[in-house]
Amino acid sequence: MERKFMAEPYKTKMVETIRMTTRKEREAAIERAGYNTFLLNSKECYIDLLTDSGTNAMSDNQWAGMMLGDEAYAGSVNFFELEKTVREVYGFKYVVPTHQGRGAENILSQIAIKPGDYVPGNMYFTTTRAHQELNGATFVDVIVDAAHDSQNEDPFKGNVDLKKLQDLIDRVGGDKIPYICVAVTVNLAGGQPVSMENIRAVREITKKHGIKIMFDATRCIENSYFIKEREEAYKDKSIGEIVKEMFSYGDGATMSGKKDCLVNIGGFLALNDEELFQKATQLVVLFEGMPSYGGLAGRDMEAMARGIRESIDYYYIKHRVEQVRYLGEKLDQAGVPIVKPIGGHAVFLDAKRFLPHIPQDQFPAQALAAQLYILSGVRSMERGIISAGRDAKTGNHYYPKLELVRLTIPRRVYSYAHMDVVADSVIELYQNRNQIAGLEMIYEPPVLRFFTARFKPLS
Which PROSITE patterns does the entry link to (predicted)? Predict the structure, then answer.
């Protein structure tokens, strides 16, 4: 008997019309875009699963809050509401708003990193690592080995490998490690969570050596849901209680509000250290705006504060994760190779196993994303060799073990029927996978190349 999934815990008040294009139109569009789905126009996409960043549908309560925007240049009422909300829900003392998460990453990297430092993390994220390296640090991956195996079904593949972390400390010394970046969940591993047990163990190690824990809090609500679902000690805890405890083991966090804060723009840097906070307020003026708005309108801060409170509702996050799981299980049942366990924000196609005839140098994930768009109008994105970039010293490609296509589900936007369309399209593509050829890169920017690189098909 097919498993039942939770119905949407909301009803529709407003709709946006989307149009299905013809295959001929899509072939022309992807060619204009250099076979890079980032360079497609949104109107050319039928179901847009490029990202869950800023693509959320806001609630009537959030839209009502937008009308209460205090657009004062300094001391906005909405900033104080955001500050209060972050303190109450996440438990951090100080809040520096930014235009989005990478603004917070930039500031944190500048105030915490010295040239020659090392920053361990449970797998890299593209912009996070770029900011760390631009400020003179060396990123060191300390995630558990299971994270690099798409078929390993460890329930907490986002965990930090404690031995790898201790080995790094023994090798370079704690004074060379300003902080460890703990992502909850881990995007490039397939949206995999970190257990509370592991976070506590990381805190024990870092405390001994004076190393801070800085969370990448972007999908902290999804991580908290997985903790509730998979750690026996937390099955009766509320999402709010789990979030608060999780962050109690850290010293700060960067947040892209465009994900689990349920808004279309915004983020913040949260800190407990007053000295770091003062340094952050100096830099935010230079890069973002006054410390009480950080590049955001007052209305956006109000929407984010309300979204934070909405996000800890159990029924909201249960449906969010189950909708992703629904798509993943349909693909898995049809034999399509995906990353397991299914993550919280996306289903990741394993392009190496999907297209074993295409070598990694010919960008199989990018080719797969382009062909899925041509077939169906579904826009996805590459998370593999192109996203990994090049070694700054040698100029050679990084060759990640995971070569993935991410089908990212926006929050409160699409229905199960849309997921059926996506599943049917991917399954059809898989059945004809031998017809897909690799790509050649014809334009490569020096940093974060996956955003704007261009390609052409190999015959």
Answer: BETA_ELIM_LYASE (PS00853)
Selected catalytic residue, list 23, 32, 73, 399: 73
Given the residues 37, 55, 126, 408, the one annotated as active site: 126
Catalytic member of 48, 161, 216, 260: 216
Mean pLDDT of the chain, nearest integer: 97
Write out the two tokens for 244: 């608060």
- Active-site annotation holds for 314: no
| Residue among 129, 259, 325, 406 flagged as catalytic | 259
Q: Could you give the residue range(s) of every CATH 3.40.640.10 domain in the chain?
A: 60-312
Catalytic status, residue 73: yes
Instruction: Please confirm, yes or no, whether 287 is among the known catalytic residues.
Output: no
E-strand ranges in 252-411 read: 252-256, 267-271, 346-350, 378-379, 381-383, 404-408
Secondary structure (3-state) at 30: helix
Distance from chain centroid for Cα 110? 22
Enter the pTM of the model: 0.95
- pLDDT tens readout for residues 170-196: 999 999 999 999 999 999 999 999 999
The CATH number assigned to the domain with range 60-312 reads: 3.40.640.10
139 carries an active-site annotation: no
% of the chain with per-residue pLDDT over 70: 100
Chain segment 132-179, per-residue pLDDT in tens: 999 999 999 999 999 999 999 999 999 999 999 999 999 999 999 999
Q: Which residue has the tokens 């990448």?
A: 216
* pLDDT classification of 1: cutoffs 50, 70, 90: low
Question: 208 pLDDT band (50/70/90 cuts)?
Answer: very high
Map tokens 């520096």 to a residue: 96
Residues carrying CATH 3.90.1150.10, the chain: 23-52+314-457
In the set 46, 79, 90, 125, the catalytic residue is 125
Q: How many helices (H) and strands (E) does the chain have?
A: 16, 14
User: Is position 363 annotated as part of the catalytic site?
Assistant: no
The pLDDT score that the predictor gives to residue 296 is: 97
| Domain 23-52+314-457, CATH homologous superfamily name and number | Aspartate Aminotransferase, domain 1 (3.90.1150.10)
Active-site pick, 258, 299, 383, 411: 383
Backbone angles phi, psi at 25, to 5 degrees: -65, -40
Q: Is 401 a catalytic residue?
A: no
Q: What is the dihedral of CA 101, 103, 106, 107, to 10 degrees?
A: -110
Tokens matching residue 152: 């390993």
Structure confidence by residue, pLDDT tens digits, 290-327: 999 999 999 999 999 999 999 999 999 999 999 999 99
Provide mean pLDDT across the span 347-365. 98
Check residue 392 and give its pLDDT.
82
Q: Is 454 a catalytic residue?
A: no
Sequence letter at residue 272: N
